[in-house]
Amino acid sequence: MIDIGGARVHLDCTGGGRITVLIVGAGYSFDWSLVQPEVAKFARVCTYDPSGSVWSDPNPSPTCDGRIGEIHAMLQHAGIGGPLVLAGHSIGAVFARLFAARFPNGVQGLVLSDYAGSYRITNAEGMRRSDEESLQRLPPLARDMHRWADSRPGASNRIADRMLFDGCIADAAKTTIYLGHKPLIAVANPYLAGSDDYRRVQADLLALSRNSKATIAPHSGHSVAMQDPEVLVQAIREVVSTARSNTSLR
User: Fold this and answer.
1) Cβ pair 9, 1 in contact under 8 A
2) What residue spans define the domains of the chain?
3) Distance of CA 130 to the CA centre of its chain
4) Chain centroid to CA 170: how far?
5) DSSP 205-236
6) Does residue 94 contact residue 167 with C-beta atoms inside 8 Å?
7) Which residues face 20 on adjacent strands?
8) Distance, CA of 167 to chain centre
9) What CATH number matches the domain at 2-245, 3.40.50.1820, 3.40.50.2020, 3.40.50.1100, 3.40.50.1240?
């Protein structure tokens, strides 16, 4: 539990190494329990639960700007400096992008999975069915914790969640960032990758760095960290290795 100045957030770090992989969401920290142990084999990796979720202190009206400040304060109070590789899924991918824009010096690479947006998807029903199976992929303890977290009073506030989502998308659209040669991998599930809307967004994401590439999680719906964790582990491995060696993605 990290005190960030009057409030505490839950941080879970495993593994070791000079580069820290920080997973900034989305989902609960234990939703990444198929990814984090594998990444810990080659880097220090941290997951966290944003204020208002799981064990972290309440935050009834989160803002995107507040989330970025919260992540930065957490790293400072936990004594975690750069270099960082940020990994984010859905709205977490937007957090990663905005954090890298605000604090560029410490960020050495990005993995952006199913970057959040309002997309027209031709097989939305297929993706929904796929997502319903995702919890079954988690280890039993993580599965139980997910269900417990979902059942807690105040675990979901659709109005606040939608306001946060819309605010983050708007902030990202007007935020300028260029990563230079820092590596960036954009991951998408096959349903999302087939959307013309997403392909336009993906092109913008890849343009953030001259050392970028796109990949698909072929066996996944939107819950990539649960359904196709190997793809995320490999993407993180590539970005960490490339950042360490200052080389180009293959």
Assistant:
1) yes
2) 2-245
3) 20
4) 18
5) HHTTBSSEEEEE-TT-SS-HHHHSHHHHHHHH
6) no
7) 44, 84
8) 17
9) 3.40.50.1820
Nearest C-alpha neighbor of 212 from the set 170, 237, 176, 179? 179
Structure token pair of residue 69:
């400040």
Give the separation between CA 228 and CA 134, rounded to whole angstroms: 10
- What's the distance, Cα to Cα, between the start and end of the chain in Å? 38
Q: Which two tokens stand for residue 90?
A: 């859905």
For tokens 């770090």, the residue is 13
Q: Whole-angstrom Cα distance, residue 235 to residue 98?
A: 20
Mapping DSSP to helix (H, G, I), strand (E, B) and coil, where does residue 160 land? helix
> What is the tens place of the pLDDT at every residue in 75-122?
999 999 879 999 999 999 999 999 999 999 999 999 999 999 888 887
